[in-house]
Amino acid sequence: MPQKSIREAINEALLLEMRRDPSVFLIGEDIVGGAGGKGEEVDPWGGVMGVTKGIYGEFPDRIIDTPISEMAYIGAAVGAAVSGMRPVAELMFCDFIGCCLDQVMNQAAKLRYMVGGKAEVPLVIRMQMGGGFSAACQHSQSLYPLFAHIPGLKVVVPSNAYDAKGLLITAIRDNDPVMFFEHKGLYDDKDEVPDGDYSIPFAEARFARDGSDITIVATGRMVKFAIEAADQLASEGIACTVLDPRTVSPFDEISFIESLEETGRLLVVEEAYPFCSFASEVAAIAAQKAFYALSQPVRLLTPPHTPIPFAPELESAYFPDAERIAGSVREMLDAAAPKRGAAA
């Protein structure tokens, strides 16, 4: 099976769906930037990360470059979706969602409900998230918990190329608005990805590692770090389950609770802000629905509740990484071990 990067997998999913369904089109800033000059053939760069590169040549009438106005083109995408099209809008950085939050939160998310199901909003909004590039606090956030809070939106956070392709195909075919978060630090990571058409259902978590000592729930780039930590801990005789939800809304509670019933311990690792976060929601689900399966308190490993720093040294200290994940697991297991001299 061929190895493909997340960038290539997403590009392939877009092409497959545009070839399959003429109602699918792309809209966003700079996705046709650099195309054409007088009398010359120039392939567009394909957005700030080059994800849509090569699509314009095949579908010049279905890929739309927009002015720098998120309010305008996200609003246009919502209207197009209600009118029977299937737009895939690229928001560039998720940090810019404030410019068009009304169009997403009050229009796309609620229209189907407000008209009693007589209208559908088959809209995908792709956007970058996450740190690791010293892009500072206005270009490094992971805001998917914000959208998981809003009913009517589905929220997808892939962590690898295989999932990115299958989940994006599912998202484009879905009749509800989907917020699709791509971590900018993972675009070049490669995985085995089939050439053909396949889809991955929403609310179906992936077990990236299986183990009986502890369940680690992680999203996006934190899945990569959790796997590295689990592999390191395995050499020490510690067996970790790494559960990647893939979609945070809807969330696969069944797989999550089954894992807790096996391991009895939970560490939630997240790159997003800690207060009112997805990590805190996972902890709440564990407390409400799997409390008696837990052998010790849940632990959350998140950044501090501050804006993301610019300086590389501070940013490195700000985000969890594989070493901090492994250290947290060791601390939890050490706390659970019998104390020296304790009665048998």
Backbone shape:
globular
Number of strands: 14
Largest sheet: 7 strands, mixed
Order of helices and strands: EHEEHEHHEHEHEEEEHEEHEHEHH
Class derived from helix and strand content: alpha/beta
End-to-end Cα distance, whole Å, is: 53 Å
Q: Bin the helical content.
A: 25-40%
Percent of residues in beta strands: 15-25%
Note poorly predicted spans: 36-40, 340-344
**Widest sheet, order of strands:** 3-2-4-5-7-6-12
Give the integer mean of the pLDDT values. Answer: 93
Give the helix tally: 11
Rg result: 21 Å
Characterization of this structure:
The chain has 344 residues and is α/β, with parallel strands linked by helices. Helices cover 34% and strands 18% of the residues. The chain is built from eleven helices and 14 strands. The strands form three sheets. The chain has a seven-stranded mixed beta sheet with strand order 3-2-4-5-7-6-12, sandwiched between helices. A five-stranded mixed beta sheet has the order 9-11-10-13-14, sandwiched between helices. It has a two-stranded antiparallel ribbon with strand order 1-8. The chain is globular, with a radius of gyration of 21 Å.
